[in-house]
Amino acid sequence: MSRLDEFNGRPADAAVEALRACNAAPRFAAGLVAARPFPDADTLVRRAGEVARALPWDEVELALAAHPRIGERVAGDSAEAAASRREQASVGGADDATLAALVEGNRAYEERFGRVYLIRAAGRSPEELLAELRRRLGNDEDAERAEVVEQLAQITELRVRELVS
To answer: Which SUPFAM superfamilies is this protein grouped with (predicted)?
Structure first.
């Protein structure tokens, strides 16, 4: 049995629990579980992105609460913590100056926007993460919210694909 078949066949509460590690917004998991069964992983991943991109801002904020700061070592053995460690693995190889700049940038971002800086870290170098952080500090609130939603959707898609692949 494939991991997708397992996901499709899980009881709803178990499927919701598995999806919470992909996106902690309650409407996300509920929306995806209600759409089962999925014929293939690509359809599931595409739907996950659609649901994530359509979340109301209060649900996005709930999802953000589960994400650590970029460059912060995540403790714990939850699926969310493990995913964050994998996604941010490149940051561990950053030089001291880049790490210090990320810490300072995170602080500035949180002061400016009142939330954690969220970015799809997977596949990006520490320098890219820092450059994006600096660029996004120039956004207004509406533009930044749109970027946050898109980054959340990309992270969600990666995690859902990993869940069923």
So the answer is: UraD-Like
